[in-house]
Amino acid sequence: MNDSPQPKPNRGLGRKIIISVITILVLLLVLTGILGYRYFQNALKPLDPHNKNVKQVHIPLGASNKQIGSILQNKKIVTSGMVFDYYVKSNNLSNFRAGYYQLKPSMSLKQIAKNLQKGGSDEPIQSAKGKVLVAEGANVQQIGQRIAMTTDFSQADFIKLMKNDRFANQLAKKYPQLLTSAVKSKGTRYPLEGYLFPATYEVKKNMSLQQLVDQMVAKTNQVMTPYYSQIKKKKMTVQHFMTLASLVEKEGSKQADRRKMAGVFLNRIAINMPLQSDISVLYAINKESKTLTNKDLKVNSPYNLYKNTGYGPGPFANPSLSSIKAVLNPAQRSKKYLYFVADTKSGKIYYSRTYVEHQQKTAKYMQ
């Protein structure tokens, strides 16, 4: 039996460790508080006092102060949505109204709050003069991207307007010869696809997005007015005509080839043969370019003109005047061409009457 005394625990060392941990925690809390206070104070100031660029902000109906703060933060108008929410509550600010606002990162929270109390516009508006280029062969999605790059309007607002049947019907009443068949067509993704004429448009200060689109449709109507009687004589609707013109636009680049391609498409329509254009499938699967697979060619969409005969619901893009004239005056229809293929090296287009002949040319020129 060992009667030697046991060592006493070093209570002094344990106490020192506890004090050190508490001290570190206190220091961290103090540091966090200082940094938080500084962040809070900075968040009360304009996000960027030197940034005078106007940004269009949409506040939806019924949005809470917290939701508004989050929107402003995401749009990079304020530093912190949470601080904005605290600011308006602590200052008893309320009655913020829905609408579209023209706000700047250089604005103070007080200025922003005052603007929100005054109310915004019912629809998107432009803050300063600008220009929008609608390229030949561009579709609604691409035009929306361009608009978002060069104006205050967002692509999302533009797409929303393009899906607005009420707006399309209003334009159809204004331009009946142009749009009556378009708004009557079933299954269209965008009723105005193909009717936003390729050109450069001036975007004036305080112009609405609807007014900008009206400009584009008005230009299309101006260009098409001399041809309505010819289209009628061909026993085609304007919607069918513009659909073919949009395919010709995307398939060919030279006017001579566009006229021959138009002849091929019209020959197929005459015998109820599917148009079988890759452009239609790319549009159906929402791709601008892709090597199509057999699965793609079978996609269940009214726009898939491999699977469906006829013209489909409507245009796939905005045709140029060149493509419009090509469909009005197709070439070599009497030769009864039903196929065409492009030489991948030279770009030259070769035409065929039979599928066997087409396969031979495809094997030869698509390498």
Report, as a whole number of angstroms, the end-to-end distance.
98 Å
Radius of gyration: 32 Å
Oligomer: single chain
Give the overall pLDDT as a whole number. Answer: 88
As a percent range, the share of helical residues equals: 40-55%
Low-pLDDT segments = none
Largest sheet: 2 strands, antiparallel
Extended strand count: 6
Number of helices: 16
Strand content: 5-15%
Shape category: elongated
Structural class: mainly alpha
What does this structure look like?
- The strands form three sheets. A two-stranded antiparallel ribbon has the order 1-2.
- Helix 7 (about 165-175) packs antiparallel against helix 8.
- It is elongated.
- It has 16 helices and six strands.
- The relative contact order is 0.08.
- Helix content is about 50%, strand content about 10%.
- The protein starts with 10 loop residues before the first helix and ends with a helix.
- It is mainly alpha-helical.
- The protein folds into three domains: about 55-120, Endolytic murein transglycosylase (Dna Ligase, domain 1, 2-Layer Sandwich); about 130-225, no CATH class; about 235-365, no CATH class.
- Strand 5 (about 340) and strand 6 (about 350) form a beta hairpin.
- The model has no long low-confidence stretch (mean pLDDT about 90).
- The protein has helices at about 10-45, 65-75, 80-90, 110-120, 140-150, 155-160, 165-175, 175-185, 210-225, 230-235, 240-250, 255-270, 280-285, 295, 320-330, 355-365; strands at about 55-60, 100-105, 130-135, 200-205, 340, 350.
